[in-house]
Amino acid sequence: MVDQEFGNTYPALKNKLKYQNSVFAAFKSANQTLTLEHLKKASEAKTFTDFAEEALSTTNDYNYTHLKAEWNAAKRACRSAKRWAKAVEDSDLFPNIKYLKSTAKNPRDKHKEYYDMVFAMDDPLLDSILPPSDWGCQCGWTTTDEELSVMKGLKPVADPGLDNNPGKDGALIAPSHPHIQKNRKRAEVILRQNICEVYGIEDSEIFEFYHNSKSNGCYFSVEKLAKIEKKANKRIAKIFANRGSMVELHGHDSLDSMVNGRWNEFKTPTKMTFNNFDKELQHANRQFKSRDLTGDVTFELPDKYDAKIIKTAFRQRINRMKDVRIENVHFVTKDKYLGVADINDVLNGDLPI
Fold this sequence. Notes:
The protein is α/β, with parallel strands linked by helices and 353 residues long. Helices cover 44% and strands 15% of the residues. It contains 11 helices and 11 strands. It has helices at 2-6, 11-42, 48-89, 126-129, 166-169, 178-182, 187-199, 227-242, 274-290, 307-320, 343-347; strands at residues 96-100, 118-120, 140-144, 208-211, 218-221, 246-249, 257-259, 262-267, 295-300, 326-332, 337-342. The chain has an 8-stranded mixed beta sheet with strand order 4-5-6-7-8-9-10-11, sandwiched between helices. The chain has a 3-stranded antiparallel beta sheet with strand order 2-1-3, with no helix packed on it. The radius of gyration is 23 Å and the shape is globular.
């Protein structure tokens, strides 16, 4: 679904959506198993055939009834996520979002108060009500340069699991979904089991693991990390994980990480100088080139940094490169994600700092 909708566009968001889809699938599977275990304990069936009929009713709900509703909602959310990414790009022309009337034969009354309302793109209310915000919701939205509406007493009304903006948090089904909430205490166990299944390893072979229960992001490593970079790399990985990403940390003789399936080299310059940032960017590009790869670089900036020095160093270094292997540059501080710029924006000095 995600690959078909996105194709080669917005790869970072696409991979984040795919990771969160796998997380939801894992929680759903765990919840189904738990439900069947409870059914087995409560069942009064005297034969296997009788119990099988009870169990089939449950699995039918999970594997057809629920799956159909989830598929339809996720498909609409996937389209919304891609449109949101495009809307962010075009926000200088169309800075606002207009809520459109439902196309359903029998639209919900609780969404009607949003019809034709115009919101600022950064209005926090959109993080909860952006369509689809309900199972079967057929409301829509579009970008606009129309004036903002006067908001009076509007409150978020959305179903658990759809009370989010997938274009911002990268989840087609939000962490508020009952499948996830019911297994919240077992979240780390479920995610670690997934890692073990993918890599064919035992749980004891996971060297590093961190999970954010609110975003369902995580970082992990199946190999020992280099002592020199370990502390800084875990710090940067945690920032991505807190934003709902999956980060796989690597050890010696490798690039630092994969973030949502994309190679990402972490850099923490020790000095706020032109030469230092120039050399770090050059070194990252050489690492990609030597492995015949492309990927992203993340710079962890000090609390006090000089944006002018960074922009100048990056622009001049890229202009001198004959083979640029860096696609995007992310910026973080020690506890905050600042933003990302693709290589053309970096060349033009258009950075989120």
